[in-house]
Amino acid sequence: MKMNIFSEIYGTYFRIAAKLLENEVTDEKNVRETVQREGFRDSVLFLPQKLLPGEESWGLFSRMPDGTLGRITKKAPVKVLTKLQKMWLKSKLSDPRIRLFMDDENLAALEKRLGDIPPLYRREQFGITDRFKDSDDFYSEEYIRNFRAALEAVRKRRIVYVEFVSGRGRRMSGKFVLLKLEYSPKNDKFRVYCYLLRNDKIRGSGIINIGRIRSITDTGRCFRTPVSMDEYFLSRKCSSPAVIRVTDARNGVERFMLEFASYEKHTVRDLETGEYTVELWYDTQDETELLIRLLSFGPVIEILGPPQLRSQAAERVRRQYELLYGDKKNDT
Question: How far is CA 318 from the centre of its chain?
Answer without folding.
Answer: 34
